Description:
Two copies of one chain form a homodimer.
Chain A: H1 6-18, H2 27-34, H3 38-50, E1 54-57, E2 63-66, H4 75-83, H5 106-122, H6 125-128, H7 139-143
Antiparallel strand pairs in A: 1-2
Helix pairs in contact in A: 1-3, 1-4, 2-3
Chain A binds a DNA duplex (30 and 30 nucleotides) through α1 and α3.
Amino acid sequence: xxxxxxxxxxxxxxxxxxxxxxxxxxxxxxxxxxxxxxxxxxxxxxxxxxxxxxxxxxxxxxxxxxxxxxxxxxxxxxxxxxxxxxxxxxxxxxxxxxxxxxxxxxxxxxxxxxxxxxxxxxxxxxxxxxxxxxxxxxxxxxxxxx
Amino acid sequence: xxxxxxxxxxxxxxxxxxxxxxxxxxxxxxxxxxxxxxxxxxxxxxxxxxxxxxxxxxxxxxxxxxxxxxxxxxxxxxxxxxxxxxxxxxxxxxxxxxxxxxxxxxxxxxxxxxxxxxxxxxxxxxxxxxxxxxxxxxxxxxxxxx
DNA sequence: CAATATAGGACTAGTTTAGTCCAAGTTAGT
DNA sequence: ACTAACTTGGACTAAACTAGTCCTATATTG
Lengths: 146, 146
């Protein structure tokens, strides 16, 4: 299975939860709202802060809030913050694969990666808060070779 | 990182290797050709046989060959054979998530999954053997909401 | 019948991941 | 000034998963 880590999954849940208003939410509040253990939520929020997706307010009455408008935060960014670069294969980056010469698949993987990256960038938090999904037109993928 | 398992990666390598001709290849030959250990290649080929992507010929002079034409085998099928269903989140399937009512993100994930699935289905083995990738038109994704 | 393959499954070692916990720093309110 | 509520950073552990190995049985060729 082409899978997303649980952390990235939680990350989007936490972000979606906070996207509903612009208030400051404490870790314990988010934990209660989502049914995820406090330490775990806390850890996730810390990671999101480090990537500037979430702003923190320290001290009593402190907490976390989205750093930007929900419409300006993509799912791709969240996944990237939690799991690192979105890429389906390891050889897609700068790392040189020892059998690169024989590996004709590399550039194809990069094309696939690009599609996925693009798809995830187009989905933003504002869209995630809506129950109904946007209809996706995949016909263009079909007409082109990929 | 949204990642593909190493097994799925190996799987596509093995399939791409065999796609170059219609000959029967033994596990040891594929192993030598790709630089992957024999038992591992053997295991991968067995999995591919089970999913009818590869046909096996038993006995001396036996080996494996593609069950269909390279153009009729998609990367999606290979990944599915190695890793199971392509799906980015666990809640995308039939399993009912206990907090489904509060989870408005579900349908959106399904949309994303669909895009990825579709993208991978459009890439076939024949394309993978070519060094240059097909140009991908992602503009349609941009015009639609996702 | 001997040599060469695949078939199937059990098994192990290693890595990754999820999750917990603790000590320190920061702010609000009294 | 003090205390309570909260974040920060990092260390740590337990569990799950993955990759990879190995063994025995079966089939085919010559």
